[in-house]
Every structure is written in C-alpha cells, then in structure tokens.
TrEMBL record:
Protein's name according to its UniProt entry: L-fuconate dehydratase
Signal peptide: none
Names of required cofactors: Mg(2+)
Highest taxon above the source species: Bacteria
Species name: Microbacterium azadirachtae
Keyword check for Magnesium: yes
Amino acid sequence: MSRIVALETSDIRFPTSLSLDGSDAMNPDPDYSAAYVIVRTDAEDGIEGHAFVFTIGRGNDVQVAGIDALAGHLVGREVEPLLDDMGGVFRELIGDSQLRWLGPEKGVMHMAIGAVINALWDIKAKRAGLPLWQLLSRMTPEEIVDLVDFRYLTNALTRDDALAILRAAEPGRADRERELRATGYPGYTTSPGWLGYSDDKLERLAREAMADGFTQIKLKVGADLDDDIRRFRKAREVCGPDFPIAIDANQRWEVSEAIAWVNALAEFHPAWIEEPTSPDDVLGHAEIARGVAPIRVATGEHAQNRVVFKQLLQAEAIQVMQIDAVRVAGVNENIANLLLAAKFGIPVCPHAGGVGLCEAVQHLSMFDFVAVSGSREGRMIEYVDHLHEHFVVPTDIRGGSYTAPITPGNGMEMKSASRAEYAWTGEHRTEGVHV
C-alpha cells in the first residue's frame, strides 16, 4: 500500500486582462487563474494527481485556502482504498459537517472538494494507463452508479433510472469509442466574440473560425443593445444567414430585460442565449425560456451542484445544459449531471475556454458519448484558443473537433515551468505588472 504524503497547492494567475481575452458584460477584466493542487504519494511509480479550480484572479488565494483545508482528510491515508471507492471518498468529503456548513455543497469548499476528487481521478487514470474518458467509459453501469450521490435527486433520477440509461448505452460502447477516436468530438469557438474586441478583430476571428472547421461561434452580449446589434450584424455578414451563432450574457440581465433584449436580437437567429440571468434563478430561466422561444436557453457553468441542474431540467428552464469540469464537486457530481441530462433528453454542451477547462471537460463529454447518452447529435464542447501551451497534454483541435486524448490521466496537469512562471506573488497584473 502507498500513502498520500501531501496536498501541494499553488496560486497561479495569467494576465489575460491585459489583452481583454475572456472579457464579457459581467467580467470586463478577468485574469484567468488556477487554484492548483498536486496530490503526492509515496508510491514507487511516482504518479501524482493534478487538478485545479478555475477562477478569474482576485479570490484565487481564497480558493487555494479551501483546498488546503481538505489536507487533513487525505494526508497519511492509504491510496488504494480511496481509489477503489471513489464514490465513498466523494460522499465523505461533501459530508464533512463543519465544512459543509459553508455551503452546503456549493461555493469555495465544494469546488475545493472537486479539485481533490479530480486529482484522485488523475492518479486512478494514470495507474490504469488510460485517459479519464476511457477509464470511465469502460466501467460497468453498476460501478458508475456507485460513484453518484443520489441524495436530493430521487424525485427526478433514481439509481434504477441511472442503471437503465447506462445499460441501454452499453451495447454500442466499443463502436462509439472507435468512432470517437477516428472523428473526434464537435467543438464550437468563443474566440471571436469577447466583448472587448474590436469589430475588425471579431470579423477576422469569425472568418478564421469557419476556415478552421468550427460549425458554431459565440458572441458575448449584454452591455449595450445597439453595440450587440451592430456586432451581431457584422458576424452575420461574415458567417452567412444559416451559420449557428450563439450569444452569452454572462448573467447580466433581469428576467424581463433578458426577454426584451433577446427578442431584439431575434432577427439574427441566435442558436441559444446563454446565462441570461442569475444562475440560481431557476424560475427566472423558465420564464425567459417561455419568453424567447423558439430561441433556446443554455446555462450551467455557474450551476452550483446537481440539485440546481435537477431543478433547471424539471422546470423546463433550459434546452441546452452546460456543465463545467471544476464548478461542482468534480467527476462524480458531473456524472450525476450527465445522467440527469440523459433522463430529461437535453443535450450537454459544456462550458470551457478558461485556463485548462478545455483540457478537462472534453473527458466528460467523450464519456457521455460512449457510455451515457450515446449521441453527439446537437452536442459540442466550447473552445477558446489560448493558454493551452501551458499544459502537458494540450487540447488537440482538428477540423473544428476535439481529438480524443490518449495520454493517461485527466488532462489537467500544467507544465511545471508554467506553474513556476505564473505563481502569484501579490502584484496587480491588471495594471500591467507581470512577475
């Protein structure tokens, strides 16, 4: 048996605010950041577990402290029993009554638990010699449902429901795995659409996205309606009348404002409106969905846990579900979210783009295709072309699709040189200081 000897954390921040990469109506100056953890063991194989929580700058130190608070649960414990019972580890960590009080099951501590869970999955996948998507896809339906905490879900999804979904997908797993490795998983790009970009840059990047094979782009909206109309018109001139263009308000609007604003943009045929209002307002999303139909509503990158996703689906508040690899408590809770989406017949198009999110969330979509929904129809993963060079196994996009990774692990390991170069020292990068 080997033991965990350390949870090593670091505060890593990239000065993306200087170029306005990531800028939108609610986040005008993000510095893409990672509260990073390495789970170290004394095993002779030298395998470490890497994971992170994505933030946008200030507060990343608070997120690091949240991960540090979990060290007492794991340091000194044998690794193998933990890896053999990942469902039990998940329930143990989210069940710490004193830490749970800070949520419950949401916010800084819940995301910190996700980082630790994801790091343990990294060790498990590396020991198995498989990428995470493949490791999950080859588990039995019974093993997969054992990972899920069904508490609070059973009025929408029971263990038997989940088993039925997974067993129905089981016969075609091998064929879908081969298909995935041959053709990849569809992506769409937000790169042209950041709110701080000039019209010329928007037009240039939209042309490049189409030339690169992407079949959808996304524009940030919500700061000024006249600007949004102008920018959307320019995007339509470049992309043509039928090319899918989604829009994203990043929680900017009141419910009534969202309905009016989206209807004012309806002439441009948005593929969906993303995060139109507070991510916690389930009934508000349902009202918006009714008010802007047939334009679809998408949300989920800030949904705090599986219970919020359950309610969004029950209320028919979303027509596109967007999971995030690090917002909820890691792989286990995202499996619950994927099963919920499959139960309600809603496509999952994950949020990505922030540092490392493309690398991480692709594994969940690929697992969904092979072992849960069995479909890529109407499904795609967000892609933004920056900061991939900092990862040991960067996302590989070909012809607008994610190439299935074959390297063992969860894909979240950042290069040691990048971690060292961008370690936060307290300087204010938004003023142009880069240490």
